[in-house]
Design brief:
By secondary structure, the protein is an alpha+beta fold. Helices cover 31% and strands 36% of the residues. The protein contains 3 helices and 9 strands. Strand 5 (112-121) and strand 6 form a beta hairpin. The termini are far apart.
Length: 163
């Protein structure tokens, strides 16, 4: 009888060893699945891992259209109170957190405004002009990509599109 007890104890030890060998394999499989999932997410939607400012910077935004306070589209010449029908202002965001906004026709030094900006969320950029004015620019998106930066100017909303 004593031999049977030893055999059952030996069987229990063998079963414990088999179970212990399975744990590292399961951990390795789970780790591989997680890494694969991360790679798939990054390759499918790279915008998830882009900084909030990366779509704004390294390009020039050019005034493309405007709306008056009634929501009607108007010519940019009306917004800028000039006879230049092809005049377009521009907006540049820099990586260092500064921006420049050119709104007046003629010499860029006459109508260039600058300051600092912070991307508040997916639809708002908070700006502080050098002379102290604090306001926000709206971001209009299409499928996570910024289509327009909307700037309030007098009684108009000027739509800037990426060049």
């Amino acid at each position: 009888m004593s031999k049977q007890k030893k055999t059952s104890k030996n069987n229990k030890n063998v079963n414990k060893k088999k179970k212990m060998k399975k744990a590292p394999i399961i951990i390795a499989i789970i780790t591989a699945v997680i890494i694969t999932a991360i790679i798939v997410v990054v390759s499918v939607n790279p915008f998830l891992f882009m900084s909030k400012t990366s779509q704004l910077t390294n390009c020039t935004w050019t005034a493309s259209s405007a709306m008056n306070s009634s929501g009607d589209e108007v010519e940019l010449s009306e917004v800028y109170n000039t006879k230049y029908s092809s005049y377009k202002g521009n907006l540049v965001f820099k990586d260092d957190g500064t921006f420049s906004l050119w709104l007046s026709p003629g010499d860029p030094d006459d109508g260039t405004h600058s300051g600092t900006y912070t991307v508040k969320d997916d639809s708002t950029v908070d700006v502080v002009f050098d002379e102290g004015t604090v306001t926000s620019f709206k971001l209009e998106r299409n499928n996570d990509e910024i289509q327009y930066v909307v700037v309030g100017y007098n009684d108009y909303e000027v739509y800037f599109k990426k060049e």
